[in-house]
C-alpha cells in the first residue's frame, strides 16, 4: 500500500513539473531575455527525471521485475529515457538544442500513459510465462531506449527540413519569375550548397549565421542520437531473436511486431547509407529520418492496436465513456 501511494505521488509530481517546464519553454520562445526561466526549466526536467527514476524503482521493488512488461510501464520507461536524453547536453554544459523536443516528448508520453489508458492498466500484474525470462531486461530496455533515441533524432531531422525548406521558399518567393517553376530536391540541394559556398566567402549577417549554426547543430545532434538509437535497436532485435528461439523455438517468426521492427531497422539503415554518400547526405538523409519517425510509431503503437501476434500482451485499451 505504501509503495502504491508513493508511486501515485511520484507520478503526479513528475507530470506536474514537466507541465510547468512546457509552459516555461513557451515563455522562453516568446521572450529570449529570460535566462533564469531557461535554468528553471532545466532544473524542472532534472526533478522530472528523479521522480520518474523513483517511480520505476518503486514499481520494480513491489512488482519484483523491471517495469517494462506492458504498455503502461514501457511508456513510463520511454518518458524516463526522454528525460535522460534531455539531461545529457545540460550536464555537458552544451546549449540544449534537444529541449524543445525532449521536454514535450516526456510530457505527451507520460500524459498519455497516465490519463489516456484505463486505470486497470496502471496496476502491476504477474508476468505471463513468455516474459518470465532473463532476456526481458535486455530486449525490452534496448528496444524502448532505441525507440526513444530514434524518435528524438528523427524530430531533429524534421526540424532541419522545416528550417531548410522555409529558407528556400523565402529565397524563391523574392523572385516573381520563379513562382511558376518547379524545383526538384536535387536543385534545392544545389542551391543550398551554393549558398554554403557564398557563406564561407562573404561575412554573413547575424540572422543567416544563426540559422546556419542551428542547421549544423540539428544535423550534428540528429546524427549522433540516431547512431545511438540504431545501436540500441540492433541489440534489441538480436537479443529478441535469441529470446524468441528459447521461448518459441525459432529465431524469427515474422510476427507483426517483428516485421515492423525489421522495417524500422531497414529505414534507418538507409539513413546511414545516405550519410556515407556525399550526393545524398543532408536533405535526403533528413527526409529518410523523418519517414522513420512515422514507422517507429507504427511499430510501437500501431501494431498494439491490432492486438494480434506473439506480442499481443502489449496491446492496450483507451479510456472509454
Automatic annotation (TrEMBL):
Membrane keyword on record: yes
Keyword Thylakoid included in the entry's annotation: yes
GO terms, molecular function: heme binding
Keywords: Chloroplast, Cytochrome c-type biogenesis, Membrane, Plastid, Thylakoid, Transmembrane, Transmembrane helix
Subcellular location: Membrane; Plastid, Chloroplast thylakoid membrane
Any one GO biological process: cytochrome complex assembly
Name of a matching Pfam family: Cytochrom_C_asm
Transmembrane segments: 12-32, 44-62, 74-91, 98-118, 138-165, 221-244, 259-274, 286-308
All copies of domain Cytochrome c assembly protein, residue ranges: 69-311
Membrane topology label: Multi-pass membrane protein
Entry's Gene Ontology cellular component terms: chloroplast thylakoid membrane; plasma membrane
Similarity field: Belongs to the CcmF/CycK/Ccl1/NrfE/CcsA family.
Cited function: Required during biogenesis of c-type cytochromes (cytochrome c6 and cytochrome f) at the step of heme attachment.
Name used for this protein in its record: Cytochrome c biogenesis protein CcsA
Species the sequence originates in: Dovyalis caffra
Taxonomic placement: Eukaryota, Viridiplantae, Streptophyta, Embryophyta, Tracheophyta
